[in-house]
Amino acid sequence: MKTVLLNSNYEMPVLGLGTWQSGAGQVKTAILHAFSIGYRHIDCASIYGNEAEIGEALQEALGQGKGLKREEIFVTSKLWNCNHHSEDVEDACRKSLTQLKLDYLDLYLIHWPYSFGHGGEDFPRTETGKMQYDVVDYRETWRAMENLVSAGLVRSIGLSNFNARQIDEIIASSTIRPAVLQVECHPYLGQTRLLAHCQEHHIVMTAYSPLGSPNRGWKMDNEPVLLLEPKVVSIAHRHSRSVAQVLLRWLLQRDITTIPKSITPSRIEENAKVFDFELSKDEMAELNSLDRGCRYIEPLIEGKCWGGGTYRSGEWQLLCLPQGTAATTKTLKPNPNPATEGS
């Protein structure tokens, strides 16, 4: 599996297996199959609720006489929103390590820039049913993340769903720079400016939901379906490839790493077969032209979490638009999306 050198001086495989929405009894089998065909990068998060089963897969695959060595694989996990206070970060990391049955993580990300309230629940709510937020400066959280590196619990640290301004604030106050930024990215959400910003600061971008997250539990009736996009389908036919392979190849040729999720053996195999063909400049341009600012993954953000400087008025989000719809002020809403470009 091809790798990219992070600014932490560790190699990260450019293609990984995502585990979001991989349910009980499925994710272990998926990971073991992925390892058997050459995957070496597994993307996890505590909030996905499946790290214990992933740990079973890792334990089965690793160790003397088991085929893989620990240093041959790359495991990512993420700090959830309820654990942003500096005193909570190490405990959260150690919990993931215990469930994953590992001594260290290759990469640990702050999952979102905003914080949820304390209290033990992953999605705490007020008495009226609204999300309960906490005001924690993500720079405080980042300093605790840096301590994980010093303690040998984590090799590289990074961010997820942060925008350019937030990245700059982290960099300005950091001892260790973010190695990776993980965000939603696909032809409908090209993240061109954010990618350039990351490259300027030697941060590797990782794309989640690279296929448009077709199996997520919430959808808009009029949202465009990436896997049915005619231009992508045409390019796939031209190369005798699947639409998914074209979408992944487009990312890799932009120097974006990616973590497509699947529990289906044939699709796990198909997603890995993206290193033996290349898209032309014209095809890349054609895919680039599809960018419409369409975001499939909506963050759980309400106006109350604007406090503490996490978001600023004017950090707008473009709603998912039906194909051919022009963006107007009526299609914008003041949802301070942490992954909005150019803010």
TrEMBL record:
Domain of life, per lineage: Eukaryota
Any one Pfam family match given in the protein's UniProt record, by short name: Aldo_ket_red
Keyword Metal-binding assigned: no
Top-level EC class: oxidoreductase
Keywords: NADP, Oxidoreductase
Molecular functions (GO terms): alcohol dehydrogenase (NADP+) activity
EC assignment: 1.1.1.2
NADP-dependent oxidoreductase domain residues: 15-291
Keyword Secreted part of the UniProt annotation: no
Protein residues bound to substrate: 111
PROSITE patterns: ALDOKETO_REDUCTASE_1, ALDOKETO_REDUCTASE_2, ALDOKETO_REDUCTASE_3
Name recorded for this polypeptide: alcohol dehydrogenase (NADP(+))
Organism of provenance: Eptatretus burgeri (Inshore hagfish)
